[in-house]
Model the fold of this input.
Amino acid sequence: MSTTLAPAEVEVEEPRDAEDFEHDRPWIVIVWNDPINLMSYVTLVFQKLFGYSRAKATQLMLQVHNEGKAVVSSGTREKAEHDVARLHGHGLWATMRQD
Done:
């Protein structure tokens, strides 16, 4: 006598659209090195705009200075656009992209 086993019921998550993944990925704001702004000024801008401690702002400024760029914030596209605009308003070269 042979018995046929029915496959076990398994909940399968419906595949997500590529669009769903795009929305999940945060946007990052990158500040680029420039030959104009003083390091002390860049540090102050990071403290003022993002509320970073002096130590954190200095660390980011040194990363910009030594490596040419640093990620200074991340979040929604709207937040990134706002942060880039504020950085531009303070004379810093900033861009954004999806991480």
About this structure: The helical segments are 18-24, 39-50, 54-67, 77-89. The radius of gyration is 22 Å.
